[in-house]
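Objective 1b: paired records.
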Amino acid sequence: MRSSRKAKNLDKNPSVSIHLDSGDDVVILEGEVREIPQSDKQVLSKLDAASKTKYKMPLVIEPGSVLYAVRPRVVLSWTEKDFPNNATRWEFPKT
C-alpha cells in the first residue's frame, strides 16, 4: 500500500537488499526498486500470466497497492558447506 511505511521508505531511498531465508544456501541481491505504474498493461499482463501459471489464479491488485521492479546491482551466492570455495559474485552495469 502506498501509505505503508515500506512504500514511504522506498520512495525516499530505493536501495534494497533481498535474501533467502536459509542460512545454508545463501543468495543476496542488492539493487534499486522502481515503481511499476498500474497503467503498464504489458508488465501487468506478464505478471498475470505468471500468477495463473504458478498459483492457478489471476493477479489481484487492490486499490492503493504499489508494484515494484528490482534492478539488481550485485548478487552474492554461496552454500555454507563449501564456503568460501563456491562463493560467487555477479555485478550488473548501470544502464
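Objective 1b, second protein:
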Amino acid sequence: MFSSFRSIFVALVLLVPMSGVAADHPADSLRESSKAFASIAASVSPSVALVRVEGTVDAPAAAGYSTPFNDDFLRRFFGNGMPQAPRQNRPPRQQRVVGQGSAFVFAVDDGVLTDKSYLMTNNHVVEHADKITVTFPDGQEFDGKVTGRDPKSDVAVIEIETAEVAPLKLADSSALEVGEWVVAIGNPFGLSHTLTVGVVSAKGRTSVGINDYEDFIQTDAAINPGNSGGPLVNLDGEVVGINTAIFSRSGGYMGIGFAIPSNLANGIAGQLMEHGSVTRGQLGIVIQPLTAALAESFNIDQGDGILVSQVNADSPAERGGLEVGDIIVSYADKPVSDIGEFRNRVALTPPGEKRSLTIIRDGRQKKMSITVGELQEETTAAGNESAHATDLGVTVQALTPEIAAQLDVEPGKGVVVSNVVPGSVAALAGIRPRMVILEVDRKAVTNPREFGRAIDAADAAGRVLLLVSLDGIQRYLALSW
C-alpha cells in the first residue's frame, strides 16, 4: 500500500510543474501585449494626420544654432530645457518658415449644407500658419483652415473638406490612472505616423509653465518635435490627451512628455468650433496655496483648500460674499486642493451659471452660491516716518500720497517696504521692496507705528501672518522665527 501511495505522489509532483509551464509561458503575455498595440495602431493611425504649415515669424538674429521655428515655438515645446544662444542687439526681421506637427480627426459634420472634418491639434503648431496642408496615411491630402485657436490652453481646431476618415473617440481623462499604458501617435522629426508606448507617469501637472491653463498628463511614452498635436490614447484606442510638450535639456526625448487631458481639450475645442474663440468664467479673486505655515496661521489643519488673498471690487466673488482670508475647500461640490486645477474648473464654467462654494472662515465651514462672471481681457491682476522691524529684517515707511501714486495704490492703507535685509526672515519669506503690507495677523495697519506694534505683539508667538500687495496682486505670507 505504501508503495502504491508513493507512486501516486511522485506522479502528482511530476504533473504539477509540467501543467504550470504550459499555462504560464512568458512569451504568451508579451504576444498579447504586442497584439494590443498593433490593434491600436491599426484603428487609430488612419485618423492621425501630418500637418505641414507655412508662415511668417519674427526671427531675431542669434548665433550658435539655427532653426526653422521662432524662439517662442521652441520655448513652448522644450520649456526650460530649450538650448539657449546669445542674441545680437538687432531688430527682429520677418522670416518665412516651414514647420510640421500632428493632428487627429475628432468630429465630422456631414450635414446637408456642410461637409467638414475637424481635427484637433496644438495652437503652437498653427499659430503662425498662412498655409496648412493636412496629409493622412492613405495619401489623402487637404488644404486646412484654422477654425479657431486658444493660446492660453494651446488647443486649436483645423477644418478640412470631409475626408473618408472616422473620428477618434474621446475618453474621460479624469478616469485615467497613474501607471496605465498609453500610446502616443504622431510625426516626430517628420517620420510620419510613428507609434510609441509608455505609461502615465503623473496627472494634474499644473505648474509646468508652458500654458496659462495647465492640467497636464505626464507620460514616459516617447514624444519628440513633430508629435505636437497628435493623440495620446489608452488601450481601447480612445483619446485621453493631446501630445503637447517635452522636458528636454538636449532637444530630444528624455523620458518626460506632457499631454493636454481630453476633458480640458474637448471643452475648449467645442467652443472653438461653435464660436471660433473661447469664453472663460471667472470669480474675480486672487488665490494662493494653503501651505503648512499659512494653515497654522489660520489655526486650521493643513489639508485640501486654497486661500483667497484678494477679492476684486464689484466682482462675482464680492457680490457672492467671498472675503479675503476665506479658504475654499470645494467648488461645485468637488474638493479643491490645487490652484491650477481650480482655475481650470472655474474657467470652463459658462459665465452666468451659479456654482456652490464651501469655504472655511474664522474656523467655521460655510456654503455659498456665486454666479460666475465672464473673464475679460487680462489686466495686471494685481521725509517719511519709518519703522524698523530689525528681527524680521524689513524697513517700512508711510504710504504717502506721492508714494501711493507711484505704486498706483490707495494712500493711507498699509505701509510700503523700503528695504529688506538679504538672508533675513523677511527676505526668505518673499518680502520685497515696493511691497505694500496691508495687514498684520488679520488686522489692518495704516502707518509704520501700527506696523511696529503689531510685529512686537507677534514676537512671543514666533510667527506672523502678513497680507501684502505688489503690482495690484494681494497674497498672504507667513513668517516664522
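The CA atoms of residues 147 and 273 lie 6 Å apart. Confidence is low (pLDDT under 50) at residues 1-23, 61-89, 378-389.
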